[in-house]
Design brief:
80% of the residues lie in helices and 0% in strands. With 395 residues, the protein is mainly alpha-helical. InterPro entries: MFS_4 (IPR010645), MFS_dom (IPR020846), MFS_trans_sf (IPR036259).
Length: 395
């Protein structure tokens, strides 16, 4: 029987792991772009390629994790990913060779996938093994905390340290955060669950996952279009010129407690009601950018966006984890891969439309249509849940 203190330590260690592997290993690059451009004359081509190879690493990791079922191997890769997040971040400041940066950012993407997907799956297995609520809202609050940490730390160090020193500082911050992770992470190898059996066939579970995959792809479009162009829209406004990082900070601040609040909402109103609401709110945040680009509207849009996108991530991945309790990382990785494909395609399309038309209006309207389609797929998954063996997904 685990105590409340034991559970709290495991949850804190899991959240900090997300902060390290996602917040620092991935999000630190965003505030570092202008520092590297000013410090070493980094071209926009290299800026874009570094972002691309990082996400390629993340998608590669998601694909590989979807094929792993051995719990011992998962634990070893999870630990390796934590160490990799520290090393690949700090080493960015020790070279000016572009090809080495590409390798480091690719490896950093692999680390992010282990922290997000293996971390979520291992925590889900631990919660199920100890008869705890299989909710991942607290876990995914680490994404919002990571955004906040990198935004605040960037503002603190950018005037005092050179670009290469700043990378090392990010790495040292990640190293310090490893201490409670190593101390409080349980032995996940003892949490392996038996393969689910019953009247529901594997084909029904696979069909349910596929439908959710389509819905999650749509959510990926909604997430990345705002994430990519929100700051650009803000910076184009005289009242927010030079303060785009503050808009992103608002999104992070909203995302941090939102995960826990979505868990509270699902307990009262049901998982599906909460998921419908999250999709609608995400669409509303996009619509606000179309209708009004005033200071108040952009800030409110950022707030709603941060609270809604993280809710979709935490609820959808928790859903598929419950359907596959014997190996939750596998369906989580499948969905994340489709989410990632959306993040590759959508910015290119919206960016092309913006260049051709001189504004983001049609690109944002296209994104709204995709989010509406996402709601349709959520409804289809809702209807199919009983066949998939997911009676716990109420509402």
């Amino acid at each position: 029987m685990i105590t409340t203190t034991d559970k709290l330590k495991v949850l804190i260690a899991s959240v900090i792991a997300v902060v390290v592997t996602v917040g620092i290993a991935r999000f630190s690059y965003t505030p570092m772009i202008p520092e590297m451009v000013a410090g070493v004359g980094l071209s926009q081509t290299v800026v874009g390629l570094l972002a691309t190879v990082n996400y390629a690493g993340y998608l590669t990791g998601a694909l590989l994790i979807s094929r792993i079922s051995d719990m011992g191997l998962k634990v070893r890769l999870y630990q390796l990913g934590l160490l990799g997040a520290v090393v690949t971040t700090a080493l960015m400041g020790f070279t000016t060779e572009a090809w080495l940066w590409y390798l480091l950012r690719f490896a950093s993407g692999l680390s992010t996938s282990t922290g997000m997907l293996l971390g979520a799956g291992l925590l889900m297995s631990w919660l199920l093994k100890h008869n705890q609520k299989s909710e991942l809202g607290i876990f995914f609050s680490g994404i919002g905390l990571g955004i906040v940490l990198t935004a605040v730390l960037a503002e603190v160090i950018r005037e005092r340290f050179a670009w290469d020193e700043q990378w090392v500082i990010y790495g040292l911050a990640a190293l310090v955060l490893l201490l409670p992770i190593w101390r409080w992470t349980p032995d996940y190898r003892a949490c392996a669950m038996p393969r689910k059996t019953g009247d529901n066939s594997e084909s029904d579970r696979s069909r349910f996952i596929f439908i959710l995959q389509l819905a999650y792809f749509c959510a990926g479009v909604g997430y990345v279009v705002t994430a990519t162009f929100l700051v650009a829209i803000a910076e184009s406004m005289p009242a927010l010129a030079g303060r785009g990082w503050q808009v992103w900070l608002v999104a992070g601040l909203a995302a941090t407690p939102a995960c826990w609040l979505w868990d509270v909402f699902t307990r009262r109103w049901g998982h599906w009601s909460a998921l419908y609401l999250a999709y609608v709110l995400n669409a509303v945040s996009i619509l606000m950018l179309v209708l009004d680009t005033s200071l108040a509207s952009v800030m409110l849009s950022s707030l709603i966006y941060g609270a809604s996108f993280i809710g979709i991530v935490s609820m959808v991945l928790a859903m598929v984890g419950r359907v596959y309790p014997e190996n939750p990382s596998r369906p989580m990785s499948r969905l994340t891969f489709s989410y990632g494909i959306a993040q590759i395609l959508a910015p290119a399309i919206v960016g092309y439309l913006a260049d051709a038309e001189g504004n983001y209006t049609n690109g944002l309207l296209m994104t709204l249509v995709v989010m509406a389609l996402g709601v349709v797929f959520v409804a289809a998954a809702h209807r199919h849940q009983g066949k998939a063996g997911a009676p716990a997904l109420s509402g």
